[in-house]
Design a protein that fits this description.
Layout: H1 16-30, H2 38-64, H3 69-81, H4 86-93, H5 104-114, H6 123-134, H7 149-172, H8 196-203, H9 216-225, H10 233-242, H11 244-249, H12 256-270
Helix pairs in contact: 1-3, 2-3, 2-4, 2-7, 3-6, 3-7, 6-7, 8-9, 8-12
The structure holds fe (ii) ion.
Fe (ii) ion (FE2) binds near residues 50, 82 and 83.
Protein backbone atom coordinates (compact mmCIF):
# COMPACT_ATOMS: atom_id res chain seq x y z
CA UNK A 1 0.00 0.00 0.00
CA UNK A 2 1.73 3.09 -1.27
CA UNK A 3 -0.10 5.53 0.94
CA UNK A 4 2.77 7.90 1.37
CA UNK A 5 3.53 8.78 -2.17
CA UNK A 6 2.66 12.42 -2.44
CA UNK A 7 3.63 12.60 -6.06
CA UNK A 8 5.68 15.69 -5.38
CA UNK A 9 9.14 16.14 -6.81
CA UNK A 10 11.95 15.30 -4.46
CA UNK A 11 14.59 17.76 -5.59
CA UNK A 12 13.95 20.05 -2.66
CA UNK A 13 14.10 17.21 -0.16
CA UNK A 14 11.40 16.16 2.22
CA UNK A 15 8.56 18.58 2.72
CA UNK A 16 6.01 19.09 5.46
CA UNK A 17 3.24 17.45 3.46
CA UNK A 18 5.32 14.26 3.18
CA UNK A 19 5.90 14.38 6.92
CA UNK A 20 2.17 14.75 7.51
CA UNK A 21 1.56 11.69 5.34
CA UNK A 22 4.09 9.72 7.36
CA UNK A 23 2.44 10.78 10.56
CA UNK A 24 -1.04 9.69 9.43
CA UNK A 25 0.43 6.42 8.16
CA UNK A 26 1.84 5.85 11.65
CA UNK A 27 -1.52 6.47 13.30
CA UNK A 28 -3.25 4.03 10.95
CA UNK A 29 -0.50 1.45 11.31
CA UNK A 30 -0.50 1.25 15.11
CA UNK A 31 -4.29 1.23 15.52
CA UNK A 32 -4.88 -2.55 15.04
CA UNK A 33 -2.15 -3.42 17.58
CA UNK A 34 -4.38 -1.92 20.28
CA UNK A 35 -6.93 -4.66 19.72
CA UNK A 36 -5.58 -6.94 22.42
CA UNK A 37 -5.94 -7.59 26.16
CA UNK A 38 -5.45 -4.89 28.82
CA UNK A 39 -1.80 -5.70 29.48
CA UNK A 40 -1.05 -5.67 25.76
CA UNK A 41 -2.85 -2.33 25.34
CA UNK A 42 -0.77 -0.80 28.11
CA UNK A 43 2.47 -1.93 26.47
CA UNK A 44 1.43 -0.81 22.98
CA UNK A 45 0.21 2.57 24.27
CA UNK A 46 3.56 3.03 25.96
CA UNK A 47 5.32 2.73 22.59
CA UNK A 48 2.87 5.03 20.79
CA UNK A 49 3.35 7.66 23.46
CA UNK A 50 7.11 7.09 23.35
CA UNK A 51 7.16 7.69 19.59
CA UNK A 52 5.27 10.98 19.96
CA UNK A 53 7.60 12.16 22.69
CA UNK A 54 10.71 11.18 20.72
CA UNK A 55 9.34 13.32 17.88
CA UNK A 56 8.99 16.22 20.34
CA UNK A 57 12.52 15.67 21.66
CA UNK A 58 13.81 15.54 18.09
CA UNK A 59 12.18 18.88 17.33
CA UNK A 60 13.91 20.38 20.38
CA UNK A 61 17.24 18.93 19.25
CA UNK A 62 16.80 20.18 15.69
CA UNK A 63 16.13 23.72 16.83
CA UNK A 64 18.70 23.63 19.64
CA UNK A 65 21.39 22.46 17.22
CA UNK A 66 20.21 24.84 14.47
CA UNK A 67 19.69 22.14 11.87
CA UNK A 68 18.78 23.27 8.35
CA UNK A 69 15.07 22.77 7.62
CA UNK A 70 15.51 19.76 5.38
CA UNK A 71 17.75 18.00 7.89
CA UNK A 72 15.12 18.65 10.55
CA UNK A 73 12.48 17.03 8.30
CA UNK A 74 14.59 13.92 7.81
CA UNK A 75 15.27 13.80 11.55
CA UNK A 76 11.51 14.00 12.24
CA UNK A 77 10.89 11.05 9.91
CA UNK A 78 13.57 9.03 11.70
CA UNK A 79 11.99 9.83 15.07
CA UNK A 80 8.52 8.84 13.90
CA UNK A 81 9.62 5.54 12.40
CA UNK A 82 12.50 4.42 14.60
CA UNK A 83 10.41 2.11 16.77
CA UNK A 84 7.74 0.83 14.36
CA UNK A 85 9.35 -2.59 14.78
CA UNK A 86 8.12 -2.60 18.40
CA UNK A 87 4.53 -3.24 17.33
CA UNK A 88 5.04 -6.50 15.40
CA UNK A 89 7.66 -7.47 17.99
CA UNK A 90 5.19 -7.22 20.83
CA UNK A 91 2.37 -8.89 18.92
CA UNK A 92 4.54 -11.87 18.04
CA UNK A 93 6.66 -12.31 21.17
CA UNK A 94 4.87 -10.27 23.87
CA UNK A 95 8.16 -8.68 24.87
CA UNK A 96 10.30 -5.62 24.10
CA UNK A 97 13.46 -7.58 24.88
CA UNK A 98 15.32 -7.98 21.60
CA UNK A 99 17.45 -10.87 22.91
CA UNK A 100 14.29 -12.91 23.48
CA UNK A 101 12.69 -11.98 20.17
CA UNK A 102 14.32 -10.11 17.29
CA UNK A 103 16.23 -6.86 16.79
CA UNK A 104 13.48 -4.22 16.77
CA UNK A 105 15.52 -1.90 14.53
CA UNK A 106 15.67 -4.60 11.86
CA UNK A 107 11.95 -5.25 12.34
CA UNK A 108 11.33 -1.53 11.76
CA UNK A 109 13.22 -1.67 8.46
CA UNK A 110 11.03 -4.66 7.44
CA UNK A 111 7.85 -2.71 8.23
CA UNK A 112 9.08 0.33 6.29
CA UNK A 113 9.87 -1.86 3.27
CA UNK A 114 6.72 -4.03 3.40
CA UNK A 115 4.38 -1.06 3.84
CA UNK A 116 6.17 1.17 1.29
CA UNK A 117 6.22 3.83 3.95
CA UNK A 118 8.87 5.99 2.29
CA UNK A 119 7.50 5.87 -1.26
CA UNK A 120 7.79 9.28 -2.91
CA UNK A 121 10.74 10.38 -0.78
CA UNK A 122 14.12 11.02 -2.40
CA UNK A 123 16.03 7.68 -2.50
CA UNK A 124 19.13 9.15 -0.82
CA UNK A 125 16.94 10.49 1.99
CA UNK A 126 15.18 7.12 2.28
CA UNK A 127 18.58 5.56 2.81
CA UNK A 128 19.55 8.11 5.48
CA UNK A 129 16.30 7.42 7.35
CA UNK A 130 16.75 3.66 7.20
CA UNK A 131 20.41 3.78 8.22
CA UNK A 132 19.65 5.96 11.23
CA UNK A 133 16.91 3.56 12.33
CA UNK A 134 19.16 0.55 11.80
CA UNK A 135 21.77 1.91 14.22
CA UNK A 136 19.54 3.64 16.75
CA UNK A 137 19.71 0.81 19.28
CA UNK A 138 23.24 -0.58 19.00
CA UNK A 139 25.40 -0.38 22.12
CA UNK A 140 27.62 2.09 20.32
CA UNK A 141 27.18 3.84 16.99
CA UNK A 142 29.21 1.91 14.37
CA UNK A 143 32.75 3.26 14.14
CA UNK A 144 32.98 3.60 10.36
CA UNK A 145 29.69 5.40 9.85
CA UNK A 146 30.05 8.50 7.70
CA UNK A 147 28.48 11.90 7.58
CA UNK A 148 25.61 12.69 6.92
CA UNK A 149 24.31 9.32 8.16
CA UNK A 150 26.21 9.82 11.41
CA UNK A 151 24.28 12.99 12.18
CA UNK A 152 20.91 11.20 12.05
CA UNK A 153 22.21 8.20 13.99
CA UNK A 154 23.44 10.54 16.72
CA UNK A 155 20.23 12.58 16.73
CA UNK A 156 17.91 9.59 17.11
CA UNK A 157 20.11 8.00 19.76
CA UNK A 158 19.92 11.20 21.84
CA UNK A 159 16.20 11.85 21.25
CA UNK A 160 15.34 8.21 22.03
CA UNK A 161 17.27 8.27 25.28
CA UNK A 162 15.68 11.53 26.38
CA UNK A 163 12.30 9.86 26.21
CA UNK A 164 13.30 6.43 27.57
CA UNK A 165 14.43 8.35 30.67
CA UNK A 166 10.97 9.92 30.90
CA UNK A 167 9.27 6.52 30.58
CA UNK A 168 11.38 5.06 33.38
CA UNK A 169 11.10 7.97 35.72
CA UNK A 170 7.30 7.84 35.31
CA UNK A 171 7.33 4.10 35.73
CA UNK A 172 9.31 4.34 38.95
CA UNK A 173 6.70 6.71 40.33
CA UNK A 174 3.97 4.09 39.80
CA UNK A 175 3.18 1.21 42.16
CA UNK A 176 4.92 -1.93 40.74
CA UNK A 177 1.61 -3.66 39.93
CA UNK A 178 0.53 -0.79 37.67
CA UNK A 179 3.71 -0.70 35.61
CA UNK A 180 3.63 -1.74 31.94
CA UNK A 181 5.22 -5.17 32.31
CA UNK A 182 7.29 -5.17 29.13
CA UNK A 183 8.93 -1.84 30.04
CA UNK A 184 10.92 -3.34 32.90
CA UNK A 185 12.25 -6.09 30.62
CA UNK A 186 11.25 -8.64 33.25
CA UNK A 187 14.11 -7.66 35.60
CA UNK A 188 13.45 -8.49 39.23
CA UNK A 189 12.83 -5.49 41.51
CA UNK A 190 15.07 -6.73 44.32
CA UNK A 191 15.29 -3.94 46.88
CA UNK A 192 18.88 -3.25 47.82
CA UNK A 193 20.42 -5.47 45.16
CA UNK A 194 22.93 -3.90 42.77
CA UNK A 195 25.77 -5.53 40.82
CA UNK A 196 29.40 -4.48 41.35
CA UNK A 197 30.09 -4.94 37.65
CA UNK A 198 27.45 -2.35 36.71
CA UNK A 199 28.65 0.14 39.34
CA UNK A 200 32.24 -0.29 38.11
CA UNK A 201 31.21 0.32 34.49
CA UNK A 202 29.29 3.49 35.40
CA UNK A 203 32.15 4.69 37.57
CA UNK A 204 34.60 4.27 34.70
CA UNK A 205 32.47 6.44 32.42
CA UNK A 206 31.31 3.53 30.27
CA UNK A 207 27.83 2.56 29.15
CA UNK A 208 26.59 -0.38 31.27
CA UNK A 209 25.88 -3.39 29.08
CA UNK A 210 22.36 -4.80 29.17
CA UNK A 211 23.66 -8.37 29.50
CA UNK A 212 25.37 -7.41 32.79
CA UNK A 213 22.15 -6.01 34.31
CA UNK A 214 20.82 -8.64 36.69
CA UNK A 215 18.16 -6.69 38.55
CA UNK A 216 16.10 -3.52 38.29
CA UNK A 217 18.67 -1.38 40.13
CA UNK A 218 21.31 -2.43 37.57
CA UNK A 219 18.96 -1.25 34.89
CA UNK A 220 18.76 2.16 36.58
CA UNK A 221 22.58 2.30 36.53
CA UNK A 222 22.49 1.36 32.86
CA UNK A 223 20.12 4.21 32.14
CA UNK A 224 22.24 6.66 34.12
CA UNK A 225 25.31 5.52 32.16
CA UNK A 226 23.68 6.72 28.94
CA UNK A 227 24.87 10.22 29.85
CA UNK A 228 28.18 9.00 28.39
CA UNK A 229 26.57 8.22 25.06
CA UNK A 230 24.95 11.62 24.38
CA UNK A 231 26.27 13.58 21.43
CA UNK A 232 24.59 16.98 21.60
CA UNK A 233 24.93 19.84 24.09
CA UNK A 234 21.18 20.43 23.67
CA UNK A 235 20.52 16.86 24.87
CA UNK A 236 22.66 17.36 27.97
CA UNK A 237 20.90 20.64 28.70
CA UNK A 238 17.44 19.07 28.35
CA UNK A 239 18.46 16.11 30.51
CA UNK A 240 19.69 18.42 33.27
CA UNK A 241 16.55 20.56 33.05
CA UNK A 242 14.29 17.53 33.29
CA UNK A 243 16.13 16.11 36.28
CA UNK A 244 15.89 12.50 35.11
CA UNK A 245 19.25 11.38 36.50
CA UNK A 246 18.57 12.38 40.14
CA UNK A 247 15.09 10.86 39.77
CA UNK A 248 16.54 7.54 38.61
CA UNK A 249 19.21 7.60 41.29
CA UNK A 250 16.76 8.39 44.10
CA UNK A 251 15.66 4.77 44.54
CA UNK A 252 19.12 3.23 44.27
CA UNK A 253 20.62 1.66 47.40
CA UNK A 254 22.54 4.04 49.69
CA UNK A 255 26.14 3.07 48.96
CA UNK A 256 29.25 5.22 48.64
CA UNK A 257 30.34 3.63 45.37
CA UNK A 258 26.87 4.11 43.86
CA UNK A 259 26.71 7.73 45.00
CA UNK A 260 30.19 8.45 43.63
CA UNK A 261 29.46 6.89 40.23
CA UNK A 262 26.16 8.80 39.94
CA UNK A 263 27.77 12.13 40.92
CA UNK A 264 30.43 11.65 38.25
CA UNK A 265 27.77 10.95 35.64
CA UNK A 266 25.84 14.08 36.64
CA UNK A 267 28.97 16.22 36.69
CA UNK A 268 29.84 15.07 33.16
CA UNK A 269 26.64 16.68 31.89
CA UNK A 270 27.71 20.20 32.79
CA UNK A 271 31.40 19.69 32.03
FE1 LIG B 1 12.73 4.45 20.88
Amino acid sequence: MQTNSTGTGSQDGMNTSQLKHLSSWFDRYVEPFLTTDEEGKKNIRLKIEHTRKVCEAMALLSSGENLPENDAHIASAVALLHDVGRFPQYRRWRTFRDSESDNHARLAIDVIRDEHVLAGIDPSEQLLIKEAIRFHNTLEPPAGIKSPTRQYVNLIRDADKLDIWRVFVELLAQPPEERATAATLGLADLTGAVSDECIAALNSGAVVRLDTAKCFNDFKLLQISWVYDLTYTTSRRILLERGYIPALAASLPERCDVREAVSKALASLSA
